[in-house]
């Protein structure tokens, strides 16, 4: 019988296998997490191939982004996960991916946000019930200083409580959900919509 930590670690491992198989988490890119408790998260360690994770390739952090397992190297982007768990108590899983489409689209849009509208598939996002609204996806400039990047993200989250995900330019996507399955559904929906947007852009130009 698996304990709670092992169960969440298994979900993270399976998410990595799926996301790698779709080409959305190449090589050692990406990081994934699940909420362990009100004050703890379980996150992938840094630098591992995300399609080949094992039960030992995760570590516990507090929600300030501090590792509670000193022997392991935490993900470079730990803070971008834990800030989301602090932002909303109902978030139970966070996924960060590096797909070609997210990377290319984020470089093609000069604005600081991608606006998705009139897509039926927008309803795959938590809280969205119609194609008629606008789903605003902010695009932050990439930054190796994750504390500085997290500050930018926080400013957006504080003023956009309905945010369902964000892009980092030339880097990738962050999205989340109540459970791992919700976060995976949102990744898949984003990827579909990014592909649509890129096709529309290529026809227009
Ligand atoms: C392989 S480069 C990608 C990294 O720089 C980073 O953006 C990333 O997604 C994975 O970092 P990690 O420290 O393994 O969690
Ligand atoms: Zn990354």
TrEMBL record:
Gene3D superfamilies: Class II aldolase/adducin N-terminal domain. NCBIfam families: PRK09220.1, salvage_mtnB. Residues 10-198 form the Class II aldolase/adducin N-terminal domain. Keywords: Amino-acid biosynthesis, Lyase, Metal-binding, Methionine biosynthesis, Zinc. It holds the Pfam family Aldolase_II. Pathway: Amino-acid biosynthesis; L-methionine biosynthesis via salvage pathway; L-methionine from S-methyl-5-thio-alpha-D-ribose 1-phosphate: step 2/6. Belongs to the aldolase class II family. MtnB subfamily. Its cofactor is Zn(2+). Its EC number is 4.2.1.109. SMART domains: Aldolase_II. It catalyses: 5-(methylsulfanyl)-D-ribulose 1-phosphate = 5-methylsulfanyl-2,3-dioxopentyl phosphate + H2O. It comes from the Bacteria. The keyword Iron-sulfur does not apply. InterPro entries: Aldolase_II/adducin_N (IPR001303), Aldolase_II/adducin_N_sf (IPR036409), MethylthioRu-1-P_deHdtase_MtnB (IPR017714). Catalyzes the dehydration of methylthioribulose-1-phosphate (MTRu-1-P) into 2,3-diketo-5-methylthiopentyl-1-phosphate (DK-MTP-1-P). PANTHER family: METHYLTHIORIBULOSE-1-PHOSPHATE DEHYDRATASE. Binds 1 zinc ion per subunit. Coiled coil: none annotated. This is Methylthioribulose-1-phosphate dehydratase. Zn(2+) binds at residues 96, 98.
